[in-house]
Amino acid sequence: MAITDVECCEEQHVHTDITDKAKKDMPGEDELYDLAELFKIFGDSTRIKILFALFEEEMCVCDIADTLNMTQSAISHQLRILKQSKLVGNRREGKSVIYFLADDHVRTIIDQGLNHIEE
After folding, report:
1. Class of domain 29-118
2. If you ran DSSP here, which 8-state letter would residue 42 be given?
3. Cβ 93 vs Cβ 62: under 8 Å
4. Cα dihedral 1, 113, 103, 49 in deg (nearest 10)
5. 32 exposed, middle or buried (CB, 10 Å; 0-12, 13-18, 19+)?
6. Residues paired with residue 88 on neighbouring β-strands, in sequence order
7. Are 98 and 90 contacting, i.e. CB atoms less than 8 angstroms apart?
8. In this structure, what are the phi and psi dihedrals at residue 110, rounded to the nearest 5 degrees?
């Protein structure tokens, strides 16, 4: 889309009451950066599939790999990213490491995304 395809105001007039409120309510740069980084994590379909699998049940790497028909190595790599981003947690049960959604916010974020694309 070229710049000329974007509709613009015919005359320049800044509505300072609106812009002042928007500026006041704008989160800080660090918070905006962290939010953008979080959304990047959702930009990978394998990570989304892993999260969907964990919606159903807590699983070990072997179970996730089987569910997604992928190697354990590939799953482990993505789980590391999800864990660093605090989207999944894990615990050891004997020789297995069980992964789970970190909290209900993860499901909410994905549900909201699905609702948006289905509109």
Report:
1. mainly alpha
2. T
3. no
4. -90
5. exposed
6. 101
7. yes
8. -70, -40
pTM over 0.85: no
Domain borders along the chain are 29-118
The 10s digit of each residue's pLDDT in 34-65 is 999 999 999 999 999 999 999 989 999 999 99
The kind and range of the H/E element at 92 are strand 88-93
Tens of pLDDT, residue by residue over 26-40, are 999 999 999 999 999
State the average pLDDT over residues 67-89: 96
| Helices 61-68 and 72-84: angle between axes, nearest 10 degrees | 110
The two tokens of residue 50 are: 């892993």
Question: Which pair of tokens denotes residue 82?
Answer: 């999800």
Tell which residue, 98, 116, 119, has the closest CA to residue 108.
116
